[in-house]
Design goal:
The protein is mostly helical and 61 residues long. It has one domain. The chain is built from three helices and no strands. The model has no long low-confidence stretch (mean pLDDT 86).
C-alpha cells in the first residue's frame, strides 16, 4: 500500500505513480539498469542490502 496519494486509474500503484511524473521514467530506468545489470556486487549481497534498507525504512519485504 502506498504512503502517498496516487491517482485512480487502470494499472498498478507503480504504473499510476509514473503518470504523475512521466519524465522521471528514463532516469529510473537507468538507475535500475545500473543497479541490477552493471552492479559489481553479487546478486545475493545486493538483495541482502535491499532487504536491510527496506527493513530500516519500515517497508515490508
Amino acid at each position: 500500500m502506498a504512503r502517498i496519494d496516487i491517482p485512480k486509474g487502470e494499472g498498478s500503484d507503480a504504473a499510476m505513480v509514473w503518470t504523475m511524473r512521466p519524465e522521471l521514467g528514463a532516469a529510473v530506468g537507468q538507475l535500475v539498469d545500473a543497479a541490477y545489470k552493471k552492479s559489481r556486487l553479487p546478486a545475493r549481497e545486493r538483495e541482502a542490502a535491499r532487504m536491510r534498507i527496506a527493513q530500516l525504512n519500515d517497508c515490508p519485504i
